[in-house]
Amino acid sequence: MSRPRVTHMTSGAYAPPVPARELTVPSTDGARLYVEVHGPTDAPAVVLSHGWTCSTAFWAAQIRELAGDHRVIVYDQRGHGRSPASPVCTTRALADDLEAVLAATLVDGEQALIGGHSMGGMTIMAAAERPRFRAHAAAVLLASTGSSRLVAEARVLPLREGPLRTRLSAGVLGSRAPLGPVTPLAKRILKYGTMGARSTPEMVEACARIVHGCPTGARHAWSQVLASLDLDHGVRRLDMPTAVLHGTADRLVPPVHAHALVAELPRCAGLTELPGAGHMTPVEEPERVTGRIRDLVSTYVTGAGEVAPQPIKEGA
Predict the structure, then answer these.
(1) What stretches in the chain show pLDDT beneath 70?
(2) What is the pLDDT of residues 291-308, one digit of tens each?
(3) Torsion of CA 212, 215, 216, 218, to 10 degrees
(4) Beta bridge partners of 48
(5) Are 104 and 74 contacting, i.e. CB atoms less than 8 angstroms apart?
(6) What is the 3-state secondary structure (H, E, C) of 49-114?
(7) Are 228 and 119 in contact (CB under 8 A)?
(8) How far apart are CA 221 and CA 63, in angstroms?
(9) pLDDT at 306
């Protein structure tokens, strides 16, 4: 019998901490979501939504640093991690799931920072008009994400922009082929496509275990949703303070998406550009991402909530 695949790091900064509480939360259509709560029950709340092919383990570094004085809530998107697969894979389902998690973990009137990476950011855009989301979102962090034209803008293939690159990118990103075990070649491919040149072997290993642990069916089903994504209207409805964070070397969701978000957000709370970072910013730049979360919580959740008058670009 083959050994079960290890889908996350078991030691070091990227090993998931033990949660204070675990829940199974039903969504609107009956899909069941695995949820973790970390940190003190009376601490300011941070809700984090992971991206395509990832899991709660993707936020391990942020959880480890924040849980001492924040209540950090993370969940597995349907079909990812410990949330069972669902036949329903739509942006509406993403919004339903986020609202279900908020209902199960926050009390009425409680404000939180709600952050999303990649598809997690798209989840927030999909939920932008939902009453429960709007009631709980004191501020938002959109990390390494975009609202439309994901396949057309992707640069994972070294080809000139145009119909050929778009068609081939769609084939690669939407492949039904199993990813197989985490091998040295698999890690090199993952690093090229999703991470910056300075990412360490530990960072690459952490991301590879998580991504390769995503079931093939879920990976393919959600790739089809992302291929036709159009959430531009949701961006314009995010009228709470919303910060954008992006790696300058992101090939999967290039920085053009971050600049498009900044241009459309009604209350942009700043653009943080991470020089040389790829798509996996919470893993590649854990201190910078965690620091941005802390800043947003202290400003908008526990502080006075003054809004930056214009986007702020932060360098190294």
Answers:
(1) 1-6, 304-316
(2) 999 999 999 999 855 544
(3) -120
(4) 74, 115
(5) no
(6) ECCCCCCHHHHHHHHHHHCCCCEEEEECCCCCCCCCCCCCCCHHHHHHHHHHHHHHHCCCCCCEEE
(7) no
(8) 28
(9) 54
- Predicted pLDDT of residue 1: 26
List the structure tokens of 12: 């070091």
- Mapped to the 3 state alphabet, what secondary structure does 162-186 carry? CHHHHHHHHHHHCCCCCCCCCCHHH
Residues paired with 141 in a beta bridge = 115, 243
In angstroms, rounded to a whole number, what is the distance separating the alpha carbons of residues 221 and 209? 20
- Specify the pTM: 0.93
Q: How far apart are CA 183 and CA 202, in angstroms?
A: 14
Helix segments in the chain, DSSP class H? 60-66, 91-105, 119-126, 131-136, 150-153, 163-173, 184-194, 201-212, 216-227, 232-236, 256-264, 281-284, 286-296
Which residue shows structure tokens 């992006």? 246
